[in-house]
Fold Transmembrane protein.
Amino acid sequence: MEVLNVPTSRMAGSARRGAQKRAPPTQSKPSLAFRWHQALLVLAFWLTTALLGSTVWAGEFDEYSVKAAYLYNFAKYVEWPPGVFDRPDAPVMICIAGENPFGAALSVLVGKAVGSHPVDVRAVSSNTGLEKCHVVFISRAEQSRARVLLASLARLPILTVSDIDDFARAGGMIGLVEAEQRIRFDINLATARQANLKLSSQLLKLATIVE
């Protein structure tokens, strides 16, 4: 049997080339298209808010027109558990618990769509009846009974929102915070999860997460 003597340098070179060919592919970075998609989703949130509350950054700051737009956007970025809606076109109920600080600002939301669900708005003067809502807003005027309201809604699949100071830290889900005529929001993610509500990652990116 003939034995071929291959120079060591040639063997080493072949081994290196083989290793290069067999090297596992490096993990690719997110594509430019993907990054643009993420950015556009965030931009869409802010544009919708600006269009619904048209005085956000122009003219007189209309606080509750802006907050009404936020309520609509929050509903768009929440996933409720199965069975919450009894039919595909059942309305999304946005309820105001107690005193209504919005005036006519909420009327612009009526009939708008959240997926296949039209938006309806209802004022609820007492603690009863809130269990039929999907979003409940508790105004600053209701601060004295906010804890009672939250206790009555605990673990129900209802998104609770308020502009009461430290609302999210006190057990609410989303707290609106005004600073320099702009509104940001805090989210208590643990409370939302306890209610079996899934908040979009796009919404979470815009929020301050609190406990």
